[in-house]
Specification:
There is one protein chain. This protein has 199 residues and is mainly alpha-helical. The chain has two domains: 1-40; 43-192, Lysozyme. Helices cover 67% and strands 2% of the residues. The chain has a two-stranded antiparallel ribbon.
Amino acid sequence: MHASSGSQIMKICAVILVLLNVIALCVLVSVLSKKAAREEYPVYFAEYVVPLSEEFGIDPDIVFSVIKTESDFRPEAVSSAGAVGLMQITLSAYEHIVSFSDRQYSQYAFSDMTDPYVNILFGCRYIRYLYDLLGNYELVFAAYNGGITNVLKWLKDDRYSENGKLTHIPFPETENYVKKVSHAITEYKKIYNGEYYNA
């Protein structure tokens, strides 16, 4: 009787031990998975992105996603087209922003675009401008990559648009860019849920 009882206790202990090991493994996998996701979609420069996003009424996930897609968080990045910094500000975009903004912007030179704060300031200002003009973030992302003139032209062409929305983007690079930024936004929301500083 006692031997049977002892054997039953041993079996129960073994089952509990297996369950604990499974739970520990699941926790470890979850932690490693979250760590890998945060390495893939980091929130570097959150000290600039979050307050500047809020200042311009933009979801920080959008700004992080544009930075991720544009430069992969490299402040010194320069494209073949001469776009500079985290949000890849071009000379024409810089000049455009300075022309319609207050004096705060004219104190910065284009050479300042490698400075993370200045670059994000200009990037957020440009996104806000595009949104006020276009009223839709898919169009904003298309204009950010493919140019405002092209987007406005596509919106007037029923081969590419319907009811103020793009049904087809004729530039493959721009189409891919819009998909990448949109996907990154989904990932940022899922990974951080608005908690950037405790990442």
